[in-house]
Amino acid sequence: MAYRISEECIACGACAPECPVEVISEGEDIYVIDEEGCIDCGNCAEVCPVGAPHEVS
Description:
Elements: E1 2-5, E2 24-26, E3 31-33, H1 43-47, E4 53-56
Antiparallel strand pairs: 1-4, 2-3
């Protein structure tokens, strides 16, 4: 499984530096996760102030 950032993202950038495999980047309006490279660690979800990262099944 992997994580995906939902539209609740406020583009604060808190998640990107927490990703150990550096697959989170700033998109046009919100941050995005390259799901192919995501290792399902959950660090992004833990630091997000609005709960935007969700596990994809």
